[in-house]
Amino acid sequence: MTLGLVAGGGAVPLQVAAAARAAGRDVFAVVIEGWADPADYRHLPHLAIRLGAAGQAIEILRARGIRQLVMCGAAKRPSFLSIRPDAGLARLLLKIGRAAWQGDDGLLKAVVRVLEEEGFEILPAQAILRDILAEAGRLGAVAPAAMALEDIRRGIAVVQALGAVDVGQGAVVQQGLVLGVEAIEGTDALLARCAGLRREGPGGVLVKLVKPGQDRRLDLPTVGPATIAGAAAAGLAGIAIEAGGTILVDRAATIAAADAAGLFLLAIRPDEFLKETAP
Q1: Which residues touch 181 (CB under 8 Å, ≥6 apart)?
Q2: Could you list the pLDDT tens digit for every one of the 279 residues in the chain?
Q3: Which residues, 6 or more positions from 179, have their beta carbon under 8 angstroms from its beta carbon?
Q4: DSSP string, 171-237
Q5: Do 26 and 105 have their domain in common?
Q6: Residue 82's CB: how many other CB atoms inside 10 A?
Q7: Residue 271 CB-density burial (10 A; 0-12 exposed, 13-18 middle, 19+ buried)
Q8: Of 16, 106, 180, 245, which is most buried by a Cβ count within 10 Å?
Q9: Are residues 241 and 261 in the same domain?
Q10: Does residue 132 lie within any of the structural domains?
């Protein structure tokens, strides 16, 4: 059965395609212009479309007999007023309704519901890439100091509060102070902003967690070498991510970059971490 791949930016969609083909599956990619580069998919059967032509893409997927979809990769959420939807997408937007004006998770849940009603099965990237999620524990050679553990505790509280109202998945905390929280700008921009806010003393931490109640088939927190570079440039001591809920874009390269930069990379289960580090 051919796997449909709705591809955003970055390496993860390409990794999904490679893993699916290695397992003997054909792949057809829908490449969203402005999110991903169609040239990266020239080795695959693919369709490059603007986001507003998603209705056309659905008809092509259906005509090819594709029923299973993986939707992954970096995405830039546009204004709905700028999409210029085709007739098919306009019909789907009517079904999505008010969720179109919610946060990312609320919108994505509605998109999944509508696609399922259209006869598609939505698979998570981790169903194809079995080892892409971080396991619990320290992932590199550097261990967090006591101050960093306290900052992680503070970061958990902040990120879970943000996630509960579907705002973001990350925050930067230094010495108990929240230097920045992630919203629509994404992690790289958050880290760049926090570089100018660093206090003297031990560096802070980036905490990235799955939103409470989030559909784990889509938009999981993602960390890669670029995240490590941004954290190092911001003067952070390390990064804490959610075990079993965070995608490592390139595991070996990410861990090697963290070690080279002297940053810790710690995968945690938030509730267990809070219990284990309670005063």
Answers
A1: 158, 159, 162, 167, 168, 170, 171, 172, 190
A2: 899 999 999 999 999 999 999 999 999 999 988 889 999 999 999 999 887 778 888 899 999 999 999 999 988 776 665 677 677 667 767 766 666 566 676 777 778 888 888 899 999 999 999 889 999 999 999 999 999 999 999 999 999 999 999 888 999 999 999 999 998 888 999 999 999 999 999 999 999 999 998 888 888 999 999 999 999 999 999 999 999 999 999 999 999 999 999 999 999 999 999 999 988
A3: 172, 173, 194, 197, 198, 204
A4: EEEETTEEEEE-STT-HHHHHHHHHTTPPSSS--EEEE-PPTT--TTS---EE-HHHHHHHHHTT-S
A5: yes
A6: 8
A7: exposed
A8: 16
A9: yes
A10: no
Q: Which domain holds residue 78?
A: 3-127
3-class SS of residue 123: strand
At 144 the three-state DSSP class reads coil
**Beta carbons of 221 and 188 less than 8 angstroms apart:** no
> How far is it, in rounded angstroms, from Cα 121 to Cα 107?
17
51 in Cβ contact with 107 (< 8 Å): no
Q: Is residue 215 part of a domain?
A: yes
CATH number for 146: 3.40.140.80
177: phi then psi, degrees, rounded to nearest 5: -95, 135
Q: What is the rounded distance in angstroms from the CA atom of residue 141 to the CA atom of residue 144?
A: 10
Last residue in a domain, options 127, 155, 180: 127
Query: Do the domain assignments include residue 25?
Result: yes
In a domain, 199, yes or no: yes
Are 160 and 113 found together in one domain? no
d(CA 264, CA 148): 10
